[in-house]
Write a structure and sequence with these properties.
The chain has 727 residues and is of the alpha+beta class. The chain has 14 helices and 40 strands. A nine-stranded mixed beta sheet has the order 19-18-17-20-21-29-28-27-24. Strand 28 and strand 29 (508-513) form a beta hairpin. The longest helix has 24 residues, at 10-33. It is extended, with a radius of gyration of 36 Å. It starts with a strand and ends with a helix.
Length: 727
Amino acid sequence: MNHFQLAAPLPVLLPALALWLFAGWLSWNNWRRSARGRAVGRLECLRFLLVTLLVFTLLRPEYVQHLQRNLTPEIAVLMDASDSMKTRDLTLTNRLVSRAQWLDAKRAAQFWLPLQNKAKVTVEDFARPSTNAGAINGTDLNAALERTLHDFKNLKAVLLLTDGDWNLGKSPLATATRYREENIPIFTVAVGRQTPMPDLILENVSMPAYGLLGEDIAVPFKVTSHLPREVKTSVSIYDPQGQQAKKDITIPPNGAVEDAILWSPRTGGEITATVKVPVEPEETIAENNECSFHISIRQEKLKVLVVDSLPRWEYRYLRNALARDPGVDMQCLLYHPDIGPGDGPHYIPAFPATKEALAPYDVIFLGDVGIGQNELTDTNAAMIRGLVEQQASGLVFVPGQRGRQASFLNSPLADLYPVILDSSKPQGLGLQNEVQLVLTSAGKRHWLTRFDSDEDRNDELWKQLPGFFWSAAVEKSRPGSEVLAVHSSIRNDFGRMPLLVTRSAGAGKVLFLGTDSAWRWRRGVEDKFHYRFWGQVVRWMAHQRHLSEKEGIRLSYSPETPLAGDTVYLQSTVLDESGFPIDKGPVTGKITSPAGRAERLEFAPMEGGWGVFKSAFVALESGRYNIEVASEPHGRRLQTELLVAPPLLEKLGQPVNAQLLREISSLSRGASFTADDLDNVVKQISLLPEPGPVEKRLRLWSDPRWGGALLFLLTLYWVGRKWVGLV
């Protein structure tokens, strides 16, 4: 039966009635005062009509229609076909099967047959993995429920069989509320165990886009154990030549271990390798014990500039270490205060005077040198800052006992300094007894401080390293810096004094080593740790600059290993034919997705005159993207590939999300069951009453047509007042 009803609460009724009576009285009085003119009377009637309609709107009128259902009731059975359903944690005829196999067995048995006596039953799969290249596979419960609500015209109930692993799309709870409004219950069946099966899971394996031949590459990983005992196992890396690296780990009962394994590739080129964890006897899922990755191994020479004032021991051994590194092209500048700049092999007579002369350097070391006569100038400092922030180069501060680096705090390099120095002690702190660097929790995990792949053995090595007798006087680290090592004995109000600190600066990195005694690490072991440390520093700092380059043009991107859906930020450095950074574009780009869709990019110039241009795009799908960057007026063009990995949304071995399924059923006035209760679910659905009439409500108070009619009458009223001269 169709009818009007007022949805406003009772407290609104009396004020609305009073307003309506007052408006009527006011219109009557206005008409009387105007000598009962006909035109004014019509205007007052129109105003009273407007007030009446507005009061009626305040009462929230609704036109309710009840439509009888003439179609056969329908029941939708939705079955999860996502990859997480491959988890083996259900028992069928005394054997362990996967969730997908359990659903296939129930489908073959046609468990829904008792429901077909009173309704039409439709069985559909959802979240089936796509075969399209680059597609993101996941479980969108909300989309499945929304599509069912839209496609079925006389829906009686929905039976949802899933593990509840919702990882795509909007929350399904909002759609469950719409089901409640239409009196359609959702019955959920949690297909799977609510507790994890005995299992080891290898996850969070990440790799850089490229590595250098001969360097140690840190491969981070995480291994989660769902075993009730302590597990002593190992993580290994296999490439086409066999096992290349191995790391022993101990996982606590039902715990996890996050660490990194050091891998040194033996050959260059494109390599596909696999990280593996041995399968334990009681494990039920072996597929999640390994993970493959792709990496490009290159042979490159990194260009380094070392600047100092005196040939102190730290300078001499640092220069020798870099000069003997086959992957480093080292040059040095020695500002000797008494005899002038140093001369000889690898020496340059003066600091590079132009940006194009400084731009080739990947890393700059600044020793016990500062801003002043016969040393660096503010112009040099500004150029170093631009090189780090815009060209993604690295900067290493290694202060000395002359205290000259304090002058940097009043120069363009001040904001790059990772620590705050104690201005009252510019010459630093000297001690009579030998002290050591102590790794922080961040330092124990950082690749720069890795002398051994085992974290505990690495920590022991650092404790056994020869110590130092002098250090810079540091108050504290600056916000945004990462402290890797601290002084073993000196503390202040901010804690232990930080001496090995890193910091990001624009596109580049900065390192501060607050002691001049790293050369003493050679005692008893020669070059083993000293050379390795500085080699790792140079390669870590220069990594971003060499993601992709060609003569006169270089491209870097962040994140280095993006996932589908990430925004990828591009930074291109372009030089003209003479090697000078270009000031103006155009610099254009073209992104071709794995599916062949092309997108044109415009690169915007950055201030500073370093020839740096920035752009960005969103990687909507996984796979290999072809990136082309060009500056046609200067004849520069670069083409490279970017591998975008699919996000790992569907994971094996995860327990069912029973809480979400219970909420969906509760909101829709349904019920939630386990896989063992499937027959009871069918029985309960078969007892549901037939769907009642469909109720449709037209809310006049929020209908735009109603609002438009009121606006038209209001306009007519004001035009009438203008016409009769009342305005």
